[in-house]
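Handout, section B. The chain below has 349 residues.
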Amino acid sequence: MVVISAPGKEIEQLCKDEHATFVSFPFRREIAPVSDLKALFRLRKLIRQISPTIINTGTPKAGLLISIAAKMAGLKPVIFTLRGLRSETLSGLKKSLVQGMETLTCRFADIVIPVSPSLGAHAQKKGIVSAKKCVVLGVGSSNGVNIEKFTPSLTSDKKAKARRALGINENDFVISYIGRINNDKGVVELFHAFRQLADIEPTVKLLIVGKFEKEDAIPNETREALEEHPQVILEGYRDDIKTIYEIIDVLVLYSRREGFGNILIEASSMEVPVIASNIPGCKDAVKQGVSGYLVNNEDELYERLKYYSNNRGKAIEDGKTGRKWVKENFDSSLIWNRQFELYTKFLSR
């Protein structure tokens, strides 16, 4: 196994853990014609040296460059894992350029793996990928969820201690968002809905775990309001996300675009009910009325938050049924086996 990626502690550690060879390559996320052309020829040389049996790419920019380089080197198959459509929330010329890049990436790939059925259907509808190229692994997700790891394990005393450390009282109802803090992730709308609820429910808290991003940044006035609100806790980035799941009552992902929504099935595995936007990707990671709810607008988001805060027994029930649903459909081993089967088909040709 050889991994070609931009440098980073997480990917380098993963390669060590999985006994894979790491090759650092300076990919640039944004379109840069001169730099990208140089990268293309460097990649062609690199791929010829490696001479892989199977190539699986995972991001639009790297996927496009590596797919073209592989064709130039006469190597196949090239598999592209479609994790989402970045063009969805763009506009104007940039939207056209990015969508064109997404379309070309899928066109140069021999097989495209959308990480959710709804993402695949949406990409086909927009003409980005053809149906005959699409292969969804199981019922979706990029890697499934480690059911054994994401299992509630804290005692009530330790859970109470962890809540106190963040300024959360025993009777508080904790709504949480975990991830990058930007406009695309719907943090602004979540805060609006929460603030409306906090005006009538003094025991609700909003726990936001993640970093504020400069790209697609939320408005300054919203950030200031978040920082000043007495019932909002801004925790920043944390490695031990499992502890966060242990102490929250509901997770929200009101995203504008999502390939799947792995955070949703992780939360469900931890018996936390979820609320997500009713969009391609998220709709495959939530079982309506079982693991939580899909909402279509900010008003519905508010109503579901209010519903759970007033019906805490229902929140607990949905958390438990959600874990059962995730265990049956998204255990990592199920996804790995489907991926292995796909690779094996190519190896036997």
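Note. The chain is about 45% helix and 15% strand. Compare this with the example in section A.
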